[in-house]
Design brief:
Order of helices and strands of chain B: HEHEEHEEHEEHHEHE
Distance between the termini of chain A: 50 Å
CATH class of the largest domain in chain B: Alpha Beta
Radius of gyration of chain B: 22 Å
Number of domains of chain B: 2
Number of strands of chain A: 0
Oligomer: heterodimer
Strand content of chain B: 15-25%
Largest sheet of chain A: none
Largest sheet of chain B: 3 strands, mixed
Number of strands of chain B: 9
Shape of chain A: globular
Distance between the termini of chain B: 62 Å
CATH architecture of the largest domain in chain B: 2-Layer Sandwich
Order of helices and strands of chain A: HHHHH
Radius of gyration of chain A: 21 Å
Number of domains of chain A: 1
Structural class of chain A: mainly alpha
Structural class of chain B: alpha+beta
Number of helices of chain A: 5
Helix content of chain B: 25-40%
Largest interface: A-B, 24 and 31 residues
CATH topology of the largest domain in chain B: Alpha-Beta Plaits
Chain lengths: 152, 251
């Protein structure tokens, strides 16, 4: 009886040790650190955003689509404007491209995003410092394709 | 006695009504508005039924060889075809009517007519197809399941279904595979509250035709409302009694 209990008590520690070993080998055990965003702070504290960003987005989308309320703070366009990175040539990178803000965390959590089937994943032209004409003819459009094709 | 006092009351009531009527008529003639309609909504508040957005299309001004409105719509919303005209998305199209007797041809742009009683909203099983309080008929693509029942119900053939994966959408006009879409009256421009008109109307004006007038049908001071008062206009398929927000003249 006693030896078996001892073994069971050791089990969590053993699992933890295996986990740490796996993390050191570079597997995705720890959440990724997203690339830095523009500005000083987000519209909500980081822990609140991590937990509830999808609820904020869903609430505001209904206000916008049905009530015509634009420019409120929990906007998907707002997320993209701050969190989209630019490459060495100053061209915006899609937030759902591999390793970028949205994709890095979602692939770690194993949660599929449905936003970018319809919504663009790069900032609006004025945010990128371009005119509409420049934007429509720029290579920005080349990087807006999803990181991986949907299989469902 | 009783009859006499009734007659007296009737007489004074009649005088009151006559005078009030005259005052109202004078007020109207002088251009006085008894209710002041807001011309632009504050950007933060929800839309209300005090406004009803609509269009007046004068087909006598619409050039048969011009499709600037169609092109402007495609540019504004990022609509591009796949060389398959039967299924490619189309929010606005040019239609030519031909009188069989005389052979007279009339050209006009046709898009979602933004009905007050839209059949597409009646049949939608999920509530995705809806009419905004200010009269704009839209699809909430978040809840559209792509059944396409609304496309069958629409008498104007105004809706399209997206069959392919899309990329390069405009930030102000999200579009995606598996959902139905149609003219939004450029609702992103309306919601700015800065008096911007839909892309098609803007292009028509730029081309010098000015066949498409846009405005608030509930605002008696708007150019659309005044034009509707001055000259006869028609709804397409008026027999369906849908009370469309898009009206035509000189069909």
């Amino acid at each position: 009886m006693t030896p078996r209990l001892n073994f069971l008590g050791l089990l969590p520690a053993l699992i933890l040790l295996c986990g740490i070993a796996a993390a050191e080998e570079g597997s995705a055990l720890l959440p990724p650190i997203p690339p830095p965003a523009k500005g000083d702070e987000c519209v909500e504290p980081t822990d609140v955003m991590r937990r509830d960003h999808m609820r904020f987005l869903q609430h505001q989308r209904d206000d916008t689509v049905h009530g015509g309320i634009r420019g409120a703070k929990h906007s998907l366009v707002g997320c993209i404007d701050c969190h989209a990175q630019t490459d060495a040539h100053g061209v915006a990178i899609a937030v759902n491209a591999k390793g970028q803000f949205c994709e890095s965390c979602h692939s770690f959590a194993g949660v599929r995003m449905d936003c970018f089937g319809c919504h663009t994943a790069v900032p609006a032209p004025d945010q990128a410092g371009m005119t509409l004409l420049e934007w429509t003819t720029s290579p920005v459009l080349a990087v807006t394709k999803p990181a991986s094709p949907r299989t469902d | 006695m009783a009859d006499g006092s009734n007659a007296l009351a009737d007489k004074s009531r009649r005088r009151f009504l006559t005078r009030t009527g005259a005052a109202v008529a004078l007020g109207l003639a002088a251009g006085v508005r008894f209710i002041d309609f807001p011309s632009a909504r504050a950007e933060s508040g929800p839309v209300s039924s005090s406004q009803r957005w609509g269009m007046l299309i004068d087909s006598s001004k619409c050039a048969s060889d011009c499709s600037a409105c169609v092109q402007a719509c495609s540019d504004e919303h990022g609509i591009s075809g796949h060389g398959r005209p039967q299924t490619d998305a189309q929010w606005i199209r040019k239609v030519t009517l031909r009188d069989k007797e005389s052979g007279r041809e009339t050209s006009l742009p046709l898009m979602c007519q933004h009905c007050e009683d839209p059949p597409c909203v009646d049949v939608c099983p999920t509530g995705a197809s809806f009419r905004r309080a200010d009269g704009v008929v839209l699809v909430d693509k978040h809840i559209c399941i792509g059944c396409r029942y609304c496309m069958l119900a629409c008498p104007y053939k105004a809706r399209s279904f997206i069959h392919e994966d899309l990329a390069d959408q405009k930030p102000w006009s999200p579009r995606g595979k598996g959902t139905v879409e149609s003219c939004t009256l450029c609702v992103h421009r309306i919601d700015e509250g800065k008096g911007r008109i839909p892309a098609c109307a803007e292009a028509c004006e730029r081309e010098g035709h000015g066949a498409i007038q846009f405005g608030d049908l509930n605002d008696p001071a708007s150019s659309v409302a005044q034009a509707l008062v001055q000259r006869e206009s028609q709804e397409l398929r008026a027999d369906l009694r849908l009370n469309t927000g898009v009206r035509y003249q000189n069909l």
